[in-house]
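User: Predict Acireductone dioxygenase's structure from this.
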Amino acid sequence: MSALTIYSETETREPLWHSTDAAEIADKLNARGVRFERWEADRDLGQDPAAETVINAYQHAIDKLVAEKGYQSWDVISLRADNPQKEALRAKFLNEHTHGEDEVRFFVEGAGLFCLHIDDQVYQVLCEKNDLISVPAGTPHWFDMGSEPNFTAIRIFDNPEGWIAQFTGDAIADAYPRLP
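Assistant:
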């Protein structure tokens, strides 16, 4: 179940607000310029689908975003617990960073935790299958896939070069709850 938990920048263990209601989550995030929507990830992709299979299954959703926002490229990120690079990838994504473009993800399988550092608060967004999130360019954030990752998401970019991060050097992510 998707969830949003909001923390103070100074109080990392006691949430200010929490909800699992998609409409409430969308309202809170939209007020901060973050797009959150529930879409339909209803295609049977089989076990550990190839990127091409995922793209073909959801080309209609990609086309909608491209027409709406002019995005230029897309790919698929899919990680499973047996990935030999899972620890290194988790460590990389757990470092607070920004992007020069929106970070758009449509989760078609599994889950991951986006943590957004907006002003003096941290918004932890548990994204699961059917969730679309778009983190605005320049928003400091990090992503937790958990110690046993199991997710597939379509990544959509303004930049044809794909995922390019500028790491902030702030260790704030270390202070907040993570996925098991």
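The mean pLDDT is 95.
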